[in-house]
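Chapter review. Work through the record for Arsenate reductase family protein before attempting the end-of-chapter questions.
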Amino acid sequence: MSMEIWINPACSKCRSALSLLDAEGADYTIRHYLQDPPSVAELERVLERLGLEPWDIARLGEPVAAELGLKSWERTAESRAQWIEAMSANPKLIQRPIITAEDGTARVARTPEAVREALGS
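Structure tokens for Arsenate reductase family protein:
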């Protein structure tokens, strides 16, 4: 099964996820999402696959989150597009790593268990 993993190379959890994927012999491609930010449509698809809302995968501790006042944004169906647009424009706001698999599944792979779930093991 082929996968794509969105990473920030400076992130220890991303490096750990890559090590585990390599140890398992996984077939994957890397997306450096800070240099190649996901579009609004891509984020909507990933959120649908994750079964999560944008605020569920937002990094609220980032300086840009404070600049935007993200913590005070409403978490409603009406505000959903605003969150997604902000995350596409400021990819540092996106939790990482995210693994998407060709079977339609996706995981926020911050733990070894989540990486294994993405691998189906």
